[in-house]
Amino acid sequence: MLGMRQWPPVNEAQKAGHVDPKMDPTRLAFEVHAMAMGAHWAYQLLDDRQAHSPRLS
After folding, report:
1. Using CB atoms within 10 A of its CB, is residue 51 exposed (0-12), middle (13-18) or buried (19+)?
2. Residue 13 and residue 55: Cα distance in Å, rounded?
3. Which stretches of the chain drop beneath a pLDDT of 50?
4. How far, in Å, CA of 41 to CA of 53, rounded?
5. Which backbone phi and psi does 15 adopt, to 5 degrees?
6. For the whole prediction, is pTM greater than 0.85?
């Protein structure tokens, strides 16, 4: 099992210039997971049917 420091999607994004090379892969994984869980909870617990829709505001 790969540790988050060797998480291939983050490492590839860093090499491609999409993610700051100084970004900690563990922290990025935590933040992405937190956003996904927030949307899931809003959908399930608050009946927010727009929770998984992209929002720019």
Report:
1. middle
2. 23
3. 1
4. 14
5. -65, -35
6. no
